[in-house]
Design a protein that fits this description.
Blueprint lengths: L1 H24 L4 H12 L13 H18 L2 H6 L1 H25 L4 H12 L3 H11 L5 H29 L6 H24 L1 H10 L3 H21 L4 H13 L4 H24 L4 H6 L1 H25 L4 H10 L5 H12 L5 H23 L1 H9 L23 E4 L3 H12 L4 E5 L2 H9 L4 E3 L5 H6 L7 E4 L4 H14 L4 E6 L5 H7 L3 E4 H16 L4 H13 L20 E6 L16 H4 L2 E7 L2 E3 L13 E6 L1 H13 L1
Parallel strand pairs: 1-2, 1-4, 2-3, 4-5, 5-6
Antiparallel strand pairs: 7-10, 8-9, 8-10
Helix pairs in contact: 1-2, 2-13, 3-12, 3-13, 5-6, 5-8, 5-15, 6-8, 6-17, 7-8, 7-18, 8-9, 8-16, 8-17, 9-12, 11-12, 15-16, 15-18, 16-19, 17-18, 25-26
Length: about 650
């Protein structure tokens, strides 16, 4: 029996892996792959598991989903966008919920079911919209800012909905206003109490945890805090997910936020995946096929209604037609938090299984078409509104001044290295422009007066706008080799004559980058070694001119002397080693010339030969090897062993 369960779990994971790989290739989100896995593994498929069996894991997935939302929740950001968030966001949420809930009541649903249905339909997918808009470079456009504002309010609105769900479950047909008000009040009091606790106690706890320098303890403490706060709110009669959200907010304001995000991500992704698999198990294909025309009708009605409502609200506040329509199209789908509400509604018996199945099917299909709608939202809005071809709401990444200054330096990437270069250029009054893909960094740098623009440096149109053809120098500061190669290829195609410097961590891709068109590749770790060498030589009295000559020679020879080192106790078998082979009297190589040895076949390099205390570097091809010569070989450990055996034994 246990063996069978293990096989079923393994099979489910394999299906999830294959589904994610296939759907990602066609541009669909991973959520749909998890839902498909749930359909195949659940009652509609192989019936390995039921939704009830997955319920505990699914609830833990919801807890971590809400914890992550709280961790990323930024009060300063919300306050900065308060007008659009609480104005447009609340209007969209209320109007959409009222319209959807009213229609649900007209077709025979009770008040409780109508509240759940209206709330679920009113939500849009934060993950899909933000990811696709970031890929398109639209987050700084007006319609991107409006979309983010609505999504922020929707995420915030999930909190009172989580408070409301258990209260509706008490007596669905006779809701008491006093009970709901008391529930909301207790939720607010719990929120304030936990926030106070978190402000004074949690920092001290995590200070002690951080001092232990144990990632395991850090992650474990985070999970315990999330679950304990969830258990506390559940004890108060509220949702466990609400406590997790508050825990996320508590830790999101701390100095450990970034570390928590990195440590918790694997658990979050895994449990969120299991949660969406459990949602997929709710889908009854027989029921979906039975009500297929209702599913399509509701799908079309939901998408069109959400588009019309958002478009109407934006037009009422004076937004341009194109911006209003592109924003509305981007928010036309149903969101991932709708699955959370529908799952809780089924668990609390607020919705019938048939209704929940139809709504889940509608949500799945709407999320499937969401990538296409979002990518083409601007084009569709352009055609329907009949505006001119030039965008009226161009973001800073498109509205880039083309410089005629031939001394311009173009810096691609504004991290630690990019900012350091910019500071020195500014000191020397050398004009420069910067492009970076981090919106927060760009916003802060522009506020400080930096000549920086948001955009993807691998996009040809943006590099043209930056004036790459007029630039005297391009500096690529990315860490990722693949991103550097892609950017380098585009830059070289646009400006064949421009000098391009590429920064890398090491020289593992030096030849590839050179062949791709880099004028010079700067391996950070190796250049650091050269700088230390130059300081040592200078302190030892070596003339500066000779030091510079040696450094330039090392760069021209592709850092030859920075490879091949004597191995220590722990050998890294991926690195080239320096090894000395002494030719004894009967060695096979004695009497042969350097050219007689098949160095390429042995896959090693003869760095130098030492004879009677003198080093010949490199030895000529006709050099005859003699007894007691010491050969300095560079290569991988196994190649060194093979070469030593050949030199000594033949």
């Amino acid at each position: 029996m246990e063996h069978s369960i293990f096989i079923h779990i393994l099979s489910m994971l394999v299906i999830a892996i294959v589904a994610i790989a296939l759907l990602r290739r066609i541009g669909l989100p991973a959520i749909l792959a998890y839902l498909l896995t749930g359909v195949v593994s659940g009652p509609s498929g192989f019936h390995w598991f039921t939704q009830l069996q997955m319920q505990s894991v699914a609830e833990l997935g919801v807890v971590l989903l809400m914890f992550t939302l709280g961790l990323e929740f930024s009060v300063p950001r919300l306050w900065a966008m308060r007008r659009t968030v609480f104005g447009l966001g609340s209007a969209q949420m209320i109007v959409t919920a009222l319209v959807a809930g009213g229609i649900a009541m007209l077709v025979g649903q009770n008040l409780v079911a109508a509240v759940v249905i209206g709330s679920a339909i009113a939500l849009s997918s934060t993950a899909i919209v933000l990811k696709l808009m970031n890929e398109q470079g639209w987050l700084r456009r007006r319609h991107g800012e409006l979309s983010v504002s609505v999504l922020l309010f929707q995420d915030l609105a999930v909190v009172p909905l989580l408070i409301l769900m258990p209260l509706l479950a008490n007596d669905g047909t006779q809701m008491s206003f006093n009970a709901i008000a008391w529930g909301l009040l207790s939720g607010i009091l719990a929120f304030l109490g936990l926030m106070s606790f978190g402000k004074w106690i949690l920092p001290r706890i995590f200070d002690e945890v951080a001092r232990s320098r144990s990632n395991e303890l850090f992650v474990l403490s985070t999970l315990v805090v999330a679950l304990v706060t969830g258990a506390f709110t559940q004890w108060l009669g509220l949702s466990m997910a609400l406590g997790a959200f508050i825990a996320g907010m508590l830790l999101g304001e701390s100095q450990y936020r970034r570390q928590l995000e990195a440590d918790i991500r694997p658990f979050r992704d895994l449990l969120m995946g299991l949660f969406f698999i459990s949602i997929g198990m709710l889908l009854d294909f027989n029921l979906v096929m039975q009500y297929w025309w209702q599913v399509l009708l509701i799908l079309i009605s939901v998408v069109l209604a959400k588009i019309v409502i958002v478009y109407g609200l934006l037009k009422l506040v004076g937004e341009k037609a194109k911006i209003a329509l592109s924003t509305a199209i981007s928010l036309g789908q149903v969101g991932e938090f709708s699955f959370v509400l529908l799952a809780l509604a089924v668990n609390y018996q607020l919705l019938e299984n048939e209704v929940s199945t139809v709504l889940v099917a509608v949500a799945v299909i709407s999320m499937s078409i969401a990538p296409w709608l979002i990518r083409h939202s601007v084009d569709v809005a352009q055609k329907l509104t009949g505006g001119n071809n030039k965008p009226q709401d161009e973001p800073v990444e498109i509205r880039l001044p083309v410089s005629d200054d031939n001394d311009l330096v173009l810096i691609l990437g504004y991290g630690r290295v990019g900012q350091t270069i910019a500071r020195f250029l500014k000191t020397e009054a050398v004009p420069y422009m910067v492009m970076d893909l981090d919106p927060t960094r760009v916003t802060e740098a522009r506020a400080a007066g930096e000549n920086i623009y948001f955009g993807d440096a691998c996009r040809m149109a943006l590099l043209k706008k930056m004036g790459i053809r007029q630039a005297s120098l391009v500096v690529v500061t990315f860490c990722e080799p693949r991103q550097s190669e892609e950017c380098l290829a585009v830059a070289r195609k646009l400006a064949p004559e421009v000098k391009i410097l590429v920064r890398t961590r090491d020289d593992s891709n030096l030849h590839e980058l050179k062949e791709a068109g880099a004028t010079q590749v700067i391996p950070e770790s190796l250049e650091g070694s050269l700088m230390l060498v130059s300081q040592v030589l200078f302190k030892c009295g070596v003339p500066l001119a000779r030091i510079i000559k040696r450094l330039e020679s090392e760069r021209r020879n592709h850092y030859q002397y920075l490879h091949g080192f004597f191995s220590g106790t722990e050998t890294d078998f991926t690195l080239d080693l320096l090894h000395a082979v002494s030719l004894a009297n009967g060695a096979s190589a004695v009497g042969k010339t350097v050219a007689d040895i098949p160095w390429q076949t042995l896959d090693v390099e003869l760095r130098a030969v030492r004879r009677r205390g003198e080093e010949i570097d490199p030895p000529p091809a006709d050099w005859i090897l003699r007894r007691n010569d010491i050969l300095m070989l560079v290569g991988k450990p196994r190649s060194i062993e093979k070469a030593e055996e050949y030199l000594l034994q033949g």
